[in-house]
Write a structure and sequence with these properties.
Layout: H1 2-11, H2 13-21, H3 29-33, H4 40-60, H5 66-75, H6 80-94, E1 98-101, E2 114-117, E3 123-130, H7 139-153, E4 160-165, H8 174-180, E5 186-199, E6 204-215
Parallel strand pairs: 3-4, 4-5
Antiparallel strand pairs: 1-2, 2-3, 5-6
Length: 265
């Protein structure tokens, strides 16, 4: 009920009913969250995705540009990409990386998703892409998403990075490395997936967030500096997977116990 209340606070009751309580015609997170009353592992998996989305909303609400993302979700029928933007924003937030959401303007090269600032003041433009659950994953699918971000969204004269959310079964790296060998504008690519694991003996759904980050050794910018955002980041054991600043919907509970939200490569 707390998760439902958070979603309804930002989007209204009718939006919640359309996207979560009824099976929508779309795909992705909204379809997978629909009919959360189903029992067993399937129902709990769907419920955990709702909880995850609500946590993102609550914790990211003070980030610059957040209101624009909420407004886009209210109005856009193809919303899976914006869900992915919240997922990547969480990664940046919990790793204490300074960023803001970029408000789209409809101009090629300026419609990327985040403006990210490194600790030493350097900035990079980042765009998020999403491959839907249930779609067939191939190497050219990922390459096409990377090319679209480079050609349509990211500026030609600034540092660029691309985040791609993929299905849980696909974390292949060769396609990404091949793309980076043929571009000088993109300094890094992050591939990310949500993995749901049923722990039958403990009656728990475990949600893991897997990612792999790739740097481009052939980019045209300052090569004396590192451009990876998440290298050598160690999660202290006492955090239970998430930093103390991240407010959990369930600090302890059936779905999201101490080990249920671990962020790890």
């Amino acid at each position: 009920m707390l998760a439902v209340s958070i979603v309804r606070h930002f989007f209204g009751h009718q939006w919640y009913l359309t996207m979560f309580s009824k099976t929508p015609p779309g795909r992705g997170l909204t379809a997978s969250c629909a009919s959360t009353t189903r029992s067993g592992a399937v129902g709990e998996s769907k419920t955990s995705r709702l909880l995850d989305f609500a946590e993102n909303l609550f914790n990211l609400q003070n980030i610059d540009g957040f209101d624009d993302r909420v407004n886009r979700l209210r109005a856009d029928s193809m919303i899976e990409s914006t869900f992915a933007e919240f997922d990547f924003a969480r990664f940046l937030y919990i790793h204490d990386i300074d960023f803001k959401f970029v408000v789209p303007c409809g101009v090629a090269g300026k419609d990327y998703d985040y403006r990210i600032r490194y600790a030493d003041g350097r900035e990079v433009c980042a765009d998020a892409k999403c491959r839907l659950e249930g779609t067939q994953m191939r190497a050219d699918t990922i390459v096409n998403a990377l090319k679209k971000a480079r050609s349509n969204n990211l500026p030609h004269d600034e540092l660029g990075a691309v985040f791609v959310k993929v299905t849980a079964s696909w974390l292949e790296d060769e396609a990404v490395r091949a793309f980076l060998r043929n571009t000088q504008r993109i300094v890094s690519v992050l591939i990310y997936a949500v993995v749901m694991i049923e722990l039958k003996d403990r009656r728990m759904m475990l949600m893991r967030h897997r990612f792999q980050e790739f740097d481009n050794l052939g980019h045209r910018f300052d090569r004396s500096k590192g451009w990876l955002l998440f290298r050598d980041y160690q999660v202290p054991k006492e955090w239970g997977g998430m930093p103390p600043k991240w407010h959990r919907i369930f600090s302890q509970g059936f779905l999201f116990g101490e080990k249920a939200g671990v962020i790890q490569p």
